[in-house]
Target: LacI family transcriptional regulator
Amino acid sequence: MTTSRSRPKKASVSAIRVAELAGVSRSAVSRTFTDGASVSPATRAKVLAAAEKLGYHVNHLARGLIHHRSGIVCMIVAELQAPFHSNVVEVTTRKLQAIGKVVMVLNTAGQPDNVEAALRQTLNYRADATVVVSGAPPVSLIETCIENGQRVILINRDDPIEGPEIVLVDNESAAREACLMLHRAGCRRLAVVSSTAGTPSIVTREQSFVAAAAELGLEAQVSRAGPTSYATGAEGARQLLGASSRPAGVFCVTDLLALGFMDVARLEFRLDIPEALCVVGFDDIPQAGWIGYNLTTFRQPIGEIADHIVAIIEKDEADPAPPKRLPTQVAWRKSVRP
Model:
């Protein structure tokens, strides 16, 4: 019978070993791997050759902590499976990595306590900044992070507290435009398909649409059949379209809700979109442009959101700037009559 022996763990190569092999001082190795530091071309060549031979890598985390900068940026996301959130993470992580940041994505799906635990974890890792994509963390917890010297960036959340950097899209104007869009298409019975999530962005879209309808002398029905999901949109369609006063124009506060709503409207109620029913979404996720949906929606400027996050993290001053409010853009397709 043979016995397997585990290979001994190989120790990481130290800067001292590189210095010994290169025949230079320890400080010369440090200067070689420090941007802007003074080191002669000959010394740099010796150090790089020795580092290559030994397989040496700079411990950026340790070096950063000495200067109170870890280089880590945490992203807190509650719904990674949601197309809009996954798009935000994909674009933002790519741009943060391009400026040399290490991105830690914390998935807080499930219990609300998971969001609190994730935020506390960012303090343990001494993250340079935390980007909160989820709308769930309580204000008190955000204040705790700020009090501990952490830069907090909130996406689509405008809390009345001092300290966080805020990046918003103009949810109110978009929702009001959605109402006018449906009204111009001849829709007089209106409805909103929302969710029970209660996040600031969703609540603003829902309330702004209802207010705009009231200004036109119309009443907008509201459906909140569950969390922000395809299934909730489908159930919203069953509730609204099965009623005696069926709406003619519907605003779904996210595209994912709209996709579920449209499928049930066409497949279960046999309604033609947009001839019998007009539908407007919000986000402009990739699926909205699929030929099976052709959803008219409001595009969130994900690239601009990511660029602004990068700009916040790169700036030297710690004082937060006023909230950045970005406009949405209508993506005209075929779910609303001309």
Notes: The longest strand covers residues 72-77. Residues 1-11, 59-67 have pLDDT under 50 and may be disordered.
